[in-house]
Amino acid sequence: MMKLRLASVVLAAVLAGCAQNPPSQNVSVSQAAQPLPSSAPAWQQGRTADQAASTLAPHAGRLTAVPAADIPLNTLKLPPGFRIELWASGMPGVRAMSRTESGKVYAGTRGIGRVYEITDNGGARTSRVLVDKLNQPAVTYHNGNLYVAAIDKVLRYDGIDRNPNVQPVDLTARFQLPVEQHHNWKYIAFGPDGKLYVPFGAPCNICMVQPGYAQIRRYDADGNNMEVVATGVRNTQGFAWHPVTREMWFTDHGRDWMGDDAPEDELNRLGRPGQFFGFPYCHANGIPDRDVKRDRACDGVTLPVTTTGPHAATMGIHFYTGSMFPPEYRNVAFVARKGSWNRTKKFGYDVVTVRANADGSNATITPFVTGFLDTQKDAFWGRPVYFLQMPDGSLLLSDEQMGAIYRISYAR
């Protein structure tokens, strides 16, 4: 009965659908953008009748431990002087990471519902499951406390670095979490203002969305004083603050089923709270949507710093501030592209750097780690997702598909 009631709420929310940036122009919504029957998978929403026979579908995650010997790191290529090595493995689905003062690393997952605690024993790393059976949890560490945000729950582990077995404080009621799951999986981080930033993705591939979705919010650390800082954000899976301007930059996934090459994913800059980034009317560098149409679709839309490739599944972003890498990498954005599914020839599965002026102008994208994808065979083995900068200036990179974390270093 509870599942049925929840499904009714979800369907009503999609049907109700009012845009977060209410248009003054006429809006029309095609049949392809309507809610699917409950028996159809959510990722099929937005397909047209002539795409019904398509064999494209999301790639299944490898949610079992992969032996270290089965991870082909020798296929990866980096710029001269850089080295990549296995730092930890055996953590299925590992995603975003956060580090405590003592050096413990906590990492969330998506499909497997775990939070891992990883301990560096000097030359080797061991891991344990801190908490299990959550709904796609993400983590961040702030002022001695570990925050865990799932789709339907927010937990805080106070003083976990001193007491690894501390019981969590349940903050869920304060966060006003919406019920829909699609694109509501989390990435969380504290900004320079001491606020906790949390995304709430669109509950669809393409649709009119009700308030509460397709947005980024910020909260006080205790969950109070919620503010919406960005709207029209379809599905951000990573954000970071520019080291000079302290402005948030965030990735955003483009919609599916508009062809192999459009719309591209985005890297955006939040110059001021309240900006509107286009969903569902306008995508990438100003592409009007095929199924949710309005007059002057891209009016009032903040366009991206740069697009990051078609269906690339652009994930984590990190501005490098260490001293290990050469000086030309200082304040450069590292961006992980997990890789496409809604494309006949795969794209992404790599790490790139984005060099741009502090205001986001003159952005250029350069390959940094390649080799997760065999372009000749159109087959991948790994899916890079998130970064963590270490005190020595090296960079950790998580691989959701292999359940592994790699260390990137530089030797002069």
TrEMBL record:
Transmembrane segments: none
InterPro entries for the chain: 6-blade_b-propeller_TolB-like, Beta-prop_PDH, Quinoprot_gluc/sorb_DH_b-prop
Pfam family membership, one: TrAA12
Coiled-coil zones: none
Signal peptide as annotated in the record: 1-19
Protein name, as recorded: PQQ-dependent sugar dehydrogenase
Highest taxon listed in the record's lineage: Bacteria
Keywords carried by this UniProt record: Signal
Organism: Ramlibacter cellulosilyticus
Compositional bias (Low complexity): 28-45
Chain ranges of the Pyrroloquinoline quinone-dependent pyranose dehydrogenase beta-propeller domain: 77-361
Presence of keyword Cell membrane: no
Location of the region described as Disordered in the Swiss-Prot/TrEMBL record: 24-50
